[in-house]
User: Fold these one by one.
Assistant:
Number 1:
Amino acid sequence: MTAIIDIQQLEFAWPGSAPVVQLEQLQLQPGEHLFIQGPSGSGKSTLLNLIGGVLTGFSGEIKLDGQSLAKLSARQRDRFRADNMGVLFQQFNLLPYLNLVDNVCLPCTLSKQRRAAAVERSGSVKNEAKRLLERLQLPPEQYQNRSVAQLSIGQQQRVAAARALMGAPTLLIADEPTSALDAQARDVFMQLLLEELQQGATTLLLVSHDATLAGYFSRTLSLEGQN
Ligand SMILES: Nc1ncnc2c1ncn2[C@@H]1O[C@H](COP(=O)(O)OP(=O)(O)OP(=O)(O)O)[C@@H](O)[C@H]1O
């Protein structure tokens, strides 16, 4: 079986600084979930950005589903990401002029593969967006006349989660996805996220300061702080 993530001898330094990410090896199989923890500044977001192909200029190798993103052209890299990756970052990047459902449908406008998976699951892309919003406790009929800009931060975070899950990506990368949620909302969110990931056999990489989230994961990677 091809690993979804296969990292060998990875090292990355910002210009003029000591290496911030040094990882001898890391492998994640399809459907595995990894929790990445470490103090502020230990390189958690940098590692996610390297794996997501947003940051280049590293030494060593990062393969996603057998594919080295660094060897692809920018266009091929964008295509690979659109087809295979859901991202849930601290900046939600929701489009304020679109309603909730249309925001959640976005990954399917960029990827035929994701569109096909959504249609297979729910009959249409819109139906799948509505199902995910409903699952994340944002019933679309209740919110249909609202712009995402009129939602609370916790609600926006859940719209972004539904969008990341759309079309069952191979890999979901999440950076502090529960930062805007209280303890109870966080537990409900994690439960739902993991259930949805399981159905799509999606591999998860999740970064958080919140060590209590480790309980949801079978594997943890601890990055050590430099400061
Ligand atoms: N664009 C950049 N240019 C130069 N240095 C950077 C840049 N982004 C991050 N760094 C540095 O890299 C180190 C790791 O940052 P990173 O954001 O990956 O840490 P983190 O573990 O995610 O932190 P936090 O938990 O506070 O979000 C820090 O020392 C930071 O100052």
Note: The chain has a mean pLDDT of 91.
Number 2:
Amino acid sequence: MAKPKVLISDKMDPNAAKIFEERGCDVDVITGETPEQLIARIGEYDGLAIRSSTKVTKEILDAATNLKVIGRAGIGVDNVDIPYASGKGVVVMNTPFGNSITTAEHAIALMFALARQIPEANELTQKGEWPKNGFMGVEVTGKTLGLIGAGNIGSIVASRALGLRMKVVAYDPFLTEERAVELGIEKVDLETLLSRADFITLHTPLTDQTRNILSRERLEKTKKGVRIVNCARGGLIDEAALKDLLDSGHIAGAALDVFAVEPAKDSPLFGTKNFICTPHLGASTTEAQVNVALQVAEQMADYLVNGGVTNALNMPSLSAEEAPKLRPYMKLAENLGSLVGQLAHGNLTQISIEREGAAAELAGKPLEAAVLAGFMRRYSDSVNMVNAPYLAKERGMDVRSIRHEREGAYNTLLRVTVGTDAGDRSVAGTLFGQDNARLVEIFGIGIEAELAGHMLYIVNEDAPGFIGRIGTLLGESGINIGTFHLGRRDAGGEAVLLLSVDQAIPKNVIDAACKLEGVKTVMALEF
Ligand SMILES: NC(=O)c1ccc[n+]([C@@H]2O[C@H](COP(=O)([O-])OP(=O)(O)OC[C@H]3O[C@@H](n4cnc5c(N)ncnc54)[C@H](O)[C@@H]3O)[C@@H](O)[C@H]2O)c1
Ligand SMILES: O=C(O)[C@H](O)COP(=O)(O)O
């Protein structure tokens, strides 16, 4: 099998390339290209490793015909069109913890730089001015720090600030009271934070809810003399309002590591008194860059080589240890989803996936995604485990995952049921041994069959002579039967015949089978 090919398109610690090679991938490091150059190149790659410079747009994803995974060596993924990548079946991963300490330290460094006006003092001193009387700082001890966002980085900033004897208040709608107590901070609403904080630091992602969270109106509500630090994302603060309020002296200082437009080369804030900035350096320490480079390469190689999924933003996690155990189940799950998707008629809006026996001990989400991948193929050819749950949601499907404690007839069982206009339709399968996936039930009828390749499904009246008739029809049509499986509800009742054949079954043969005596349904299936 050809090695997966990975492109590293942003500057990254060389350890990333080394890990890719060690883990069985071919890797190219080509940084600083224009979008057009990337579009021309991306088609040959299975993986794309990035930081924040590469913008993974719809156009790039459309050209990325082989792409399976995008790995962000860092946290923020606002430079990736995740919904579009998901629709294309591309996994998007990040490294959510590798640079958190480093970025928290940068926020604290900027807070001190503002409190003591270090950059300005440094500049004038080096110009020979010795401006000893020109600077009067403030202590941080005893002051109130207002965190907007108390996730990974916000929590680390809080712990450092508490160590500096600051009081910490936080606005984060997802922060629980228990977690706030654990962190030693006070959970407040945004208005309270604005009115109480002497320093404000931001630590949220940029989303529709957080964009412009420090709007002009909110900046005007801050305590006079506040100092603001943003090491999270540009776009969280109204930069024009920030300039006006720095100019008026309402805000005593602001430090930005991130800007609404990056690279920021001509911001109106440049040159403003008490304004300092760094060029998106929050994550730029040796330690953090080694961490994120190693982690992203390990995660991406794991996925490309073993199917392990870690820190994906659009797919359930699956450890490299779990992946081989789950693999035969994934095939079974996908085939059951595909079978029920091919057989059931009408407007299908409900699907449930039940796990019993050994299957109940496995991760449910990946199996659910595999069932949906098989099932959604009734609507689109380009479905896989990544985009299937999104497509199902888009179609308004109600997806249920049920885990049974009970002991069943099989050691391990997966059952997939769809709700149709005519009632529920259910298929079930098991594994014989470690990896022999078998169908064991179809619409309430017990059967035992492998689902593979071209198959013919027939429902007929259980009567003597039928098997001979279908065998003769296929033989006369030059179609070789590979496997042959029978099941029936009861003697003389409804029977099911499932057989695999060596070639796709032409329509005229299906039509002829429909006309055979006792036949109720004939369908060609593909797996
Ligand atoms: N400057 C840099 O170089 C740099 C480096 C690393 C991370 N970052 C950025 O820092 C930010 C925080 O990273 P993190 O790892 O702490 O993320 P995180 O996901 O751990 O934390 C984000 C927090 O924001 C909170 N939040 C979400 N919506 C909110 C809202 N409307 N109001 C208030 N809080 C809200 C969440 O509940 C969460 O607790 C991200 O934007 C990330 O991209 C920047
Ligand atoms: O979200 C992040 O991880 C930071 O913004 C770091 O971005 P960078 O990798 O471009 O330095």
Note: The radius of gyration is 30 Å.
Number 3:
Amino acid sequence: MSTKLPKDMRYTQAIEARLQRLLERSQHDEELREDLDWLIGKYVRLERKLDKISRISDRLQGEVLELNRQLRQAVTTDHLTGLLNRRGAVERLEAEASRAGRGDLGFCVLLLDLDHFKRINDTYGHDAGDLFLEKIAECLRTCLRQYDSSGRWGGEEFLVLLPGTNLQQAQLVADKLLQAIRQLRVPLSQQKNAPDLHCTLSIGIARFNAGDNLNQVLACADQALYLAKNQGRDQAQTFCPQQTQQALEALRHHPCTS
Ligand SMILES: Nc1nc2c(ncn2[C@@H]2O[C@H](COP(=O)(O)OP(=O)(O)OP(=O)(O)O)[C@@H](O)[C@H]2O)c(=O)[nH]1
């Protein structure tokens, strides 16, 4: 009769010591030995069940994490363009603002608005407009650096976040975007003589420095965008406190806008 416990089992030290003692004592006690074998058999089956449950629980935990990741992605992604949606863009802005607060990095925000986009919808239909928005998103992704972010801010309005960038550098990025969109041609169909969709952009630029209020910076970018629209579109305007205010004031008193 063996006095060794099954080897492939995982016992706690206390259980192992007691079982081992009982096994040795049961050598001359048939009844005790039978009870002990029964208990060890139960223990083996229980341990296998626990093992199975723990593997299932590991797998479920992995699946829950993956579902959470997919859910997070779904609520922060714009389904048409695949860019961040407004909520995703705000989260990215807030993260960048708090990062900037810890150092002196700062970043620039660009608000982009397509010019006379309504004409594309009105002339070629909403699906053509959607197609054009998708191509705009592709164009943004191609033009920007890996660590820049872009999101769909509203219907035909986009936001670009340029970390560690000053206003001069942001102006260069804006020029690159203006040119890329100006040159973008989106064929409406494969048919010969089908018209190409095209459009221009207006951009407002503002800079966030450590300690700034994010909403105020966004409002500044919006004012600069308003200026870009009113000064002829297809251009970028940078928010500079005095000049922008003066220009907006002048627009307010202009006979065409007052
Ligand atoms: N196809 C499509 N159109 C959209 C979507 N969201 C907004 N729009 C359209 O975008 C157009 C915006 O029109 P407006 O606000 O007048 O702006 P605009 O024509 O671009 O003129 P400006 O901004 O002044 O240059 C409207 O026709 C909206 O219907 C969308 O998801 N898909």
Note: The helical segments are 13-25, 30-76, 86-102, 117-124, 126-143, 167-183, 214-230, 241-252.
Number 4:
Amino acid sequence: MIQVEDIHKSFGDTHVLKGITTSFEQGKTNLVIGQSGSGKTVFLKCLLGLFEPEKGQICYNGQFYSELSISERRDLRQEMGMVFQGSALFDSMTVEGNVMFPLEMFTKQSRAEMQDRVDFVLERVNLVDAHKKFPSEISGGMKKRVAIARAIVMNPKYLFCDEPNSGLDPKTAILIDNLIQEITREYNITTVINTHDMNSVMEIGEKIIFLKNGFKEWEGTNKEIFKTDNEAVTNFVYSSELFKKVRQMYIEERN
Ligand SMILES: Nc1ncnc2c1ncn2[C@@H]1O[C@H](COP(=O)(O)OP(=O)(O)OP(=O)(O)O)[C@@H](O)[C@H]1O
């Protein structure tokens, strides 16, 4: 569980996060949505400990980040998995080399133990024949699976994903969303995903926070978001013609 209490983050005179309070539960896919520039990436970087808010607190399973020593922060960092936008794989390493990398960096496991763990997570993300391939030899959807395998190889308590669907076709995007949700539930991870993708909102938005100009404008579930009267949220959700039609159908059904 992550609790966020009134966090503020500025860069010089630019006040980007203006007092965000929320919480993200374990075993749930939590989504952060909002217009470009609303502060989603800065928020995710605060959760990752890459930016320290100048005001407010972030608490990870009862531990306040600001109260942790440097070595405790390092330990916490190792409990976090990250799926970057565009996958961010090492081009010169094979699929299994990419997934093994965190184990080599941060653990003292034997080669056989690491290989077992890599085989297990690659199988978990349904990649069985790609171990020896290089990123240039696999599809975008497969690259995301490798990025997810690498993010979970250390058995994280927290999983952060920045636009995990960017660059994927809608069908593959849904498979990746479902995989993230399954893994989140199976391993009881606290998962936070930055997204623009309304399909993700519908499919896996167990909790959604909507940011606007650095404020939390709204929060709720994927069921609630389609019923809200909050104008900023409806403008965002129904910016596409398809979703306007869905809303119209919903209103007609209700009446
Ligand atoms: N390191 C930084 N230094 C100065 N300003 C920054 C920095 N990082 C972000 N900002 C500013 O913070 C604001 C929010 O940026 P952020 O990247 O969090 O938006 P976003 O909601 O993730 O947008 P997008 O959906 O386009 O990625 C922007 O005005 C941006 O210019």
Note: The first helix runs from residue 40 to 47.
